[in-house]
Specification:
heterodimer, A: alpha/beta, eight-stranded parallel beta barrel, B: alpha/beta, TIM Barrel, two-stranded parallel ribbon, 9 helices, 10 strands
Chain lengths: 275, 278
């Protein structure tokens, strides 16, 4: 969906957790979206470290609804790139994300988003960081063979003790030195950290591939647009002004929106049309 | 009075910390019992395997904590749930929860908590209900073999359409009809449905063997899982009900979402201690 000249908006199926995937697709068409980011999670798809279900039907459903899949956002579940070497969690994390890369290709997208959740608060930061770096390098190498791009970015402290800030993401990008690693900006996490969105745009430029957008308050984030205290309109104008050419992904809090996801979508669409 | 050993801590709130940190926190707060949430990073459990638990069991017992129950992660952040909607997911969930029973037995616990799971919001009640019954029935057979008691709790009406009231839970128990199936109260969920603990004792009597017992909201019932004193539940009234019904089971403190779980466990135990005897 292109609402204001250049910006590309894409919804996600996160808030449709309580409904079949077909219901999500029908609603996206009805609301005027032409593309989306697929949140790879049950009940819409099964993936674990042992494999994944046949995605033929899923792909056909997307085709029938004439929607373009812009990226596959792998749900982190209990996997963690920070997991200790030699642990089952580590072994299975790599297998799981490799399968996610495979699925993305089958669904005709070459962008795979990985949330860097799981760094422990009482763990050794250096060791955990190195663990993450090593696995990310392996996954980037695996993805590169099939011409895929991995997208990682800042994550809330509630989900990980590391990679919460612009500086940490910048360091990760620099240390990894892989040209198929792109960056995602979670607006809520950045604002909670007191960061400027403009700094993210200036530092990563064309490598900034996805901006996760939602409203937020002091105690919680990922609210529908216009339902919090964040300067959403200002952020969108900034993205437009800076000629941001990646995707603006509207990412809602699952639990807050899952009982009536279409209502949430309508609120967001109304907000975007208004500005 | 309630005995101190009936109060059990839980590691679900320590997902951002190591297991050792959790154990130390439990000792600092004065817990003698724990219910283990068998998810990463503390455990690995899936449809095919589970992590070695000998070390965990030894470590836990070494600091004076008894493992009294287990909760197998489901739903929210995991692939598996007790009402899995698609057939492929259903099979994987049965294998996973069956392994959960085996892991519970290996840890030396006697109780594994379960729930109804949920179906799609736009599907028929009977379809979703039948699937939950099928999954629970399959898991109950493994529980019977392993000598584990499954304690079925209700969820909130925001989480499921098939298992959030006493009547729905009664129906599920009747359909599954397993000697391994028992009941438990999660006072957050029952509070959401405006049910009193006494109603559960009246409905299930001695089959009611376990509790998730933490503070919660009355005015905002979808939240909850608080430290006692941070919400709106009436602790004294709840304790009186337990004593009145001669309840001898455990009261797990299923506190969630703490920014500082250690501090919260210490605060929580301080409040509960007024009602405990050693």
């Amino acid at each position: 969906m292109k609402s204001s000249d250049e910006l590309i908006f894409a919804n996600m199926n996160v808030q449709y957790f309580r409904y079949p995937f077909s219901y999500f697709l029908e609603n996206q068409v009805a609301l005027g979206f032409d593309s989306f980011i697929f949140w790879g999670s049950v009940p819409h798809i099964w993936v674990d470290q042992f494999g994944y279900e046949d995605v033929t039907e899923l792909k056909e459903m997307i085709r029938k609804h004439k929607l373009k899949l812009l990226a596959y956002a792998a749900r982190p579940y209990n996997y963690s790139l920070f997991a200790p070497k030699g642990s089952l969690q580590r072994k299975y994390t790599e297998s799981y994300y490799r399968f996610c890369i495979d699925i993305a290709q089958k669904l005709d997208t070459n962008q795979i988003c990985i949330d860097l959740w799981g760094a422990l608060r009482d763990g050794d930061c250096t060791v955990q960081y190195e663990n993450c770096l090593e696995m990310l390098a392996n996954l980037c190498t695996y993805a590169k063979v099939c011409n895929c791009t991995l997208v990682v970015g800042n994550v809330p402290y509630a989900n990980s003790a590391l990679i919460n800030t612009l500086d940490e993401v910048q360091r990760l990008k620099k240390d990894l030195q892989m040209n198929n690693l792109k960056i995602a900006l979670d607006v809520c996490t950045a604002l909670e950290k007191g960061e400027e969105i403009e700094d993210w745009l200036n530092i990563f430029e064309k490598d900034l591939s996805i901006v996760y957008l939602a409203d937020g308050r002091n105690t919680c984030s990922e609210y529908p647009l216009g339902y919090g205290c964040y300067p959403i309109a200002k952020i969108l104008w900034l993205l437009k002004d800076q000629r941001y050419c990646g995707t603006v992904s509207i990412k809602m809090n699952r639990e807050k929106s899952e009982l009536n996801p279409t209502r949430t979508d309508k609120i967001n669409i109304t907000y975007l049309r208004r500005i | 009075m309630i005995k101190r050993k009936q109060i059990a801590g839980m590691n679900q709130n320590y997902r951002q910390y190591s297991y050792d940190y959790f154990l130390k926190s439990q000792a600092m707060a004065g817990y003698l019992s724990v219910e283990l949430w068998l998810g990463a990073p503390h455990f690995w459990l899936d449809s095919c395997s589970w992590s070695d638990c000998k070390t965990i069991r030894q470590k836990t017992n070494a600091v004076g904590l008894a493992i009294i129950a287990a909760t197998i992660p489901s739903g929210g952040a995991f692939q598996y749930q007790y009402g899995a909607q698609e057939s492929f997911h259903c099979k994987r969930s049965i294998d996973y929860f069956s392994n959960g029973v085996r892991l519970t037995a290996e840890l030396g616990a006697k109780i594994m908590t379960i729930n109804s799971g949920w179906g799609y919001w736009n599907e028929k009640f009977d379809t979703a209900f039948a699937r939950s019954a099928e999954i629970i029935n399959a898991v109950a057979k493994v529980a019977q073999t392993e000598g584990i008691m499954l304690a079925l709790e209700s969820l909130t009406g925001d989480e499921t359409r098939t298992g959030y009231t006493i009547d729905q839970i009664k129906s599920l128990v009747a359909v599954v009809d397993s000697p391994s199936l028992y009941l438990m109260v999660d006072i957050g969920a029952t509070g959401y449905s405006k049910e009193k603990s006494q109603q559960w004792f009246d409905a299930f009597g001695k089959k009611l063997i376990h509790y998730h017992f933490q503070d919660g909201d009355v005015t905002n019932p979808s939240a909850g899982h608080y430290v006692w004193g941070d919400g709106e539940f009436k602790l004294e009234e709840e304790i009186e009900c337990l004593i009145h019904n001669d309840y001898r089971g455990y009261l797990t403190q299923e506190i969630c979402g703490s920014s500082d779980p250690r501090k919260d466990d210490i605060r929580n135990m301080r409040v509960l201690s007024r009602f405990l005897e050693d």
